[in-house]
């Protein structure tokens, strides 16, 4: 599984990461990469973190291991790169972004989608064993259509189940 992370979107959703970014963009990026480096030790999945803009100083940042860093090149944006990667990887990817346009494109490509807040919460949650229960994901986007839903009314929507499985992978030891 490949996690596609909207770098600045995630940084700006967490108070600690946002504080580091206030020091400098590089400090914010480094703090996010350290957070991901700790998380990647929990499983075999890889992360691709996409940031807006070309890197100006030095070579490519070294995150090592299973973390890959991409900088969009103008006129492309990080959102464009995330959508392109989601199309390429399809259901082999989990897209992490709170940007609605990116989420919709990723879902159309067959990728699982997590909001930045869900992702950060899962990273901070204690590690669980593979057989333990994970909390249900509230699926607000389909609240209106829930009344007309056929079948089991207690079952989560397909996209919510996909997101829940992705969170379960992130929380596993």
User: What is the mean pLDDT?
Assistant: 81
Taking pLDDT < 50 over at least 5 consecutive residues as the criterion, the unreliable ranges are 58-62, 129-145
Distance between the termini: 15 Å
Secondary structure: number of strands:
5
- The spatial strand order of the largest sheet comes to 3-2-1-4-5
- Determine the number of helices (DSSP H or I, runs of at least 4 residues): 7
Shape descriptor reads: globular
Largest sheet: 5 strands, parallel
Q: What letter string, H or E per element, gives the SSE order?
A: EHHHEEHEHEHH
Helix content: 40-55%
β-sheet strand percentage: 5-15%
Decide which structural class fits the backbone: alpha/beta
Query: How much is the radius of gyration in Å?
Result: 16 Å
Describe the structure.
The protein has 173 residues and is of the alpha/beta class. Helices cover 43% and strands 13% of the residues. It has 7 helices and 5 strands. Strands 3-2-1-4-5 form a 5-stranded parallel β-sheet, sandwiched between helices. Strand 4 (93-96), helix 5 and strand 5 (112-114) form a beta-alpha-beta unit. It is globular, with a radius of gyration of 16 Å.
């Amino acid at each position: 599984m490949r996690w596609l992370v909207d770098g600045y979107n995630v940084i700006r959703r967490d108070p600690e990461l946002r504080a580091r970014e206030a020091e400098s963009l590089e400090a914010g990026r480094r703090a996010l990469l350290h957070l991901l480096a700790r998380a990647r030790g929990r499983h075999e999945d890889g992360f691709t973190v996409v940031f807006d803009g070309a890197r100006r100083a030095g070579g490519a940042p070294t995150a090592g291991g299973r973390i890959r860093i991409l900088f969009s090149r103008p006129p492309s944006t990080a959102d464009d790169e995330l959508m392109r990667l989601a199309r390429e990887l399809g259901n082999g990817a989990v897209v992490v972004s709170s940007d609605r346009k990116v989420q919709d494109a990723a879902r159309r490509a067959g990728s699982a989608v997590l909001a930045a807040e869900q992702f950060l919460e899962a990273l901070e949650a204690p590690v669980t064993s593979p057989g333990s229960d994970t909390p249900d994901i509230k699926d607000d986007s389909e609240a209106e259509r829930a009344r007309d839903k056929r079948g089991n009314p207690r079952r989560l929507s397909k996209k919510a189940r996909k997101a829940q499985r992705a969170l379960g992978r992130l929380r596993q030891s």
